[in-house]
Write a structure and sequence with these properties.
Blueprint: H1 2-17, E1 30-36, E2 41-50, E3 53-62, H2 65-78, H3 83-98, H4 104-110, H5 123-140, E4 147-148
Parallel strand pairs: 1-4
Antiparallel strand pairs: 1-2, 2-3
Helix pairs in contact: 1-2, 2-5, 3-5
This protein binds zinc ion.
Length: 150
């Protein structure tokens, strides 16, 4: 278990240091702004859709290691997925960081996202981990008002 925890920590550190898809999509079909005032995390998520598939997704902004690495992992997780699949993944991720979905099947499906399972022990950090997902959700729903975790 200690080794697994170590591995998870490495994943979070790696994505914080080298965030994937940290860029602006100039011709994005959708974008949304997310704000977590409790921690000071601010991000913007950009999405390019082809039919109902997330053809490209990216983010930019600034914040703590958890929010940045979660955003980075979120983009790699939903890239190429349908909007419905992305929503399902968000539901599973949300369940994991709040209630703690420990089922092996869910873990397997979450893949590297399972790195954030330990976050539920730190309620203030749950908002950091969820921010990118809430913002993605808002972008996909074309909501115009900024997302706040408060
Ligand atoms: Zn944060």
């Amino acid at each position: 278990m200690a080794e697994l925890r170590e591995l998870y920590q490495q994943t979070i550190l790696d994505h914080n240091r080298n965030p994937r898809n940290f860029r602006v999509i100039k011709d994005a079909d959708r974008s949304a702004h997310g704000d977590n005032p409790l921690c000071g995390d601010k991000i913007r998520v950009y999405v390019k859709l082809k039919n109902d598939v997330i053809e490209d997704v990216s983010f930019d902004g600034s914040g703590c290691a958890i929010s940045q690495s979660s955003a980075s992992l979120m983009t790699t997780a939903v890239m190429g997925k349908s909007v419905a699949e992305a929503d399902q993944l968000f539901a599973k991720f949300h369940a994991m960081v709040t209630a703690g979905a420990e089922q092996a099947a869910d873990r397997k499906e979450l893949g590297k996202l399972a790195a954030f399972a330990g976050v539920r022990e730190f309620p203030a950090r749950v908002k950091c981990a969820n921010l990118a997902w809430h913002t993605l959700h808002a972008a996909l729903e074309s909501r115009t008002e900024p997302v706040s975790t408060e």
